[in-house]
Amino acid sequence: MDFMLANNDEELKDAVSKCPIAVVLFVGRQCAICVSFESMLRSICRGYRNRICCIKVYSDAALAHVKSLGINSVPSLAAYVRGRLVAVTSGALYAPTVNLFLLSVVRSAEV
């Protein structure tokens, strides 16, 4: 599964609005932890097949979102269901925690 890449706040907003369930990965350009986290997230997202749109954005390119979401470290995740924010994480998480996060997002979409 490839991540969509949003290049700025406007592209990010547009991508999120097109996905029933969207998970946005905020990363830093020179962040080694972010590279590892992205690889892990790709692997986990494969299990969700086409149920989740995964979107990657560099935090410095989406400053309005970063500010409004209160993101203060990378990597971070933001989850949206039908364009509505449902959850935000901050910092690198372990794989089981990411899996539970995604599962809770999918379940919230089914309600």
From TrEMBL:
Protein's organism: Thermoproteus tenax (strain ATCC 35583 / DSM 2078 / JCM 9277 / NBRC 100435 / Kra 1)
Record domain Thioredoxin: where: 7-93
Pfam families in the record: Thioredoxin (PF00085)
Official protein name in the record: Thioredoxin
InterPro entries named in the record: Thioredoxin-like_sf, Thioredoxin_domain
Gene3D superfamilies found in the cross-reference section: Glutaredoxin (3.40.30.10)
Domain of life: Archaea
